[in-house]
Amino acid sequence: MGESKRIYIETYGCQMNLADSEIVLGIMKKHGYSLTDDISKADVILVNTCSVREHAEQRVIGRLSSFLRYKKRKPDLVIGVLGCMAERLKKRLIEEENLADIVVGPDEYRKLPQLVNDAFAGHKGIAVKLSKVETYDDITPLRTEGISAWITVMRGCDKFCTFCVVPFTRGRERSRPLDSIVKEVEMLSSQGYREVTLLGQNVNSYRDGNYDFADLLSAVAQVDRNMRIRFTTSHPKDMSNKLIQTIAEHPNICNYIHLPVQSGSDRILELMNRTYDRKHYLELVRKIRETIPGVSLSTDIIAGFPTETEEDHKMTLSLLEEVRFDGAFMFKYSPREGTKAYAMGDDVPDEVKVRRLMEIIELQQKISYEINQGLIGKEVEVLVEGESKRSSEQWMGRTDTNKVVIFPKHESVKPGDYVIVRINKANSATLFGDIVKILHEKNLSKNSLVSSLN
Ligand code: SAH
Ligand code: SF4
Ligand code: F3S
């Protein structure tokens, strides 16, 4: 027996792709492969790709071209393209530009060991069929070390927002059984994980027999009260009162909801097929804030959707002002072939899109800054994640409202501990402060703003 073959993997796109890469590595490890973070030592290079915007695709193509130099040095190196670009670009990647040996879509990862083997023998391979049932339920993901784990609870999307490729790249909605998710959370708890994020393109459509997403959240929250439970993404159409109530009831379900609105204009929301209007969205936000005091909200915005006028754009700005989100992910509209919006043309000139996007970003940054300034002097519960990227003298952690907090290290605190930090400085993205109390275990009150409870 020789040494095991080494895999290097790079992941683009959303958290679901990150979680899928862990599933892929779980599958490959079972077949005797090991992981390397040194690309020059790899026998297999895998790139898990994203198609959501053109820019995301171009980045991957650029990256793949740069791998050809490793291939020159090591001719039997296998290069594999996984994920959302697979179906769309399989021909181009394998036949036309010869950038990959294998192309594997998100529902075909079980075939990967065989395809890689065939590639070592010189046979290229494509597997891009989408499945109505695949959830990788029995696969143990190879997780990167840390205190936080992802679990994909549903795959695919049936919403067909007119701008979005995801229903095409990921196929139909399907859910993983509740029992097996709860078992996985139990295992993660016994392994010392302190945070679990339940993932799906639209977790609110989760369904297992009679169980809905609120039932799943509640079951998962009861596994370990010291474990923080997060989830993403919620669709504003399907956010039930029961779900809001469930978040409010469980101290360890985080006070944070990512609720993509996309636009503030009813005309654009209609063209996007988002199936809700501004009024519904604002009413939902009101209900959420009333039921879950201290909740933090974030959103996604698209600037420059086809036919978007200056007036539509102003509606988006006014919605941002009305809601005052804690944060937002803001994008320039990118036409995707095969989607309904693609047929609507791409009539907003690029410089207009860029200017609108800048206005949206500027406004949101100002709002985030103001909200975070309001936290100065407050004490917040923080789960310590690890060293700050900027300084080895500082820890980085998050509030349960998903705000990043940086604070000086303390010798008896380690990643995975809960601490109380008093905030003394803030910008639009980060809070800074000092530890005032070490909890180790989670504070079992609902609100992360400890000082407001004293
Ligand atoms: N399922 C999630 C998000 C999927 S993609 C949801 O519904 O919110 C993440 C975000 O990318 C979307 O919310 C949207 O804001 C953005 N996005 C998707 N397609 C896009 C496109 N064609 N151009 C620009 N942004 C896009
Ligand atoms: Fe795309 Fe809409 Fe589905 Fe989100 S809900 S993945 S934006 S189609
Ligand atoms: Fe991208 Fe696929 Fe996620 S298109 S955003 S990686 S579902």
Automatic annotation (TrEMBL):
Its EC number is 2.8.4.3. [4Fe-4S] cluster 2 binds at C157, C161, C164. One of its GO terms (cellular component) is cytosol. Pfam families: Radical_SAM (PF04055), TRAM (PF01938), UPF0004 (PF00919). [4Fe-4S] cluster 1 binds at C14, C50, C84. SMART domains: Elp3. Residues 143-370 form the Radical SAM core domain. Its cofactor is [4Fe-4S] cluster. Keywords: 4Fe-4S, Cytoplasm, Iron, Iron-sulfur, Metal-binding, S-adenosyl-L-methionine, Transferase, tRNA processing. Residues 373-437 form the TRAM domain. The keyword S-adenosyl-L-methionine applies. It is found in: Cytoplasm. PROSITE patterns: MTTASE_N, MTTASE_RADICAL, RADICAL_SAM, TRAM. GO terms for molecular function: 4 iron, 4 sulfur cluster binding; metal ion binding; tRNA-2-methylthio-N(6)-dimethylallyladenosine(37) synthase activity. It catalyses: N(6)-dimethylallyladenosine(37) in tRNA + (sulfur carrier)-SH + AH2 + 2 S-adenosyl-L-methionine = 2-methylsulfanyl-N(6)-dimethylallyladenosine(37) in tRNA + (sulfur carrier)-H + 5'-deoxyadenosine + L-methionine + A + S-adenosyl-L-homocysteine + 2 H(+). InterPro entries: Elp3/MiaA/NifB-like_rSAM, Methylthiotransferase, Methylthiotransferase_CS, Methylthiotransferase_N, Methylthiotransferase_N_sf, MiaB_methiolase, rSAM, rSAM_horseshoe. Monomer. Belongs to the methylthiotransferase family. MiaB subfamily. HAMAP family: tRNA_metthiotr_MiaB (MF_01864). Catalyzes the methylthiolation of N6-(dimethylallyl)adenosine (i(6)A), leading to the formation of 2-methylthio-N6-(dimethylallyl)adenosine (ms(2)i(6)A) at position 37 in tRNAs that read codons beginning with uridine. This is tRNA-2-methylthio-N(6)-dimethylallyladenosine synthase.
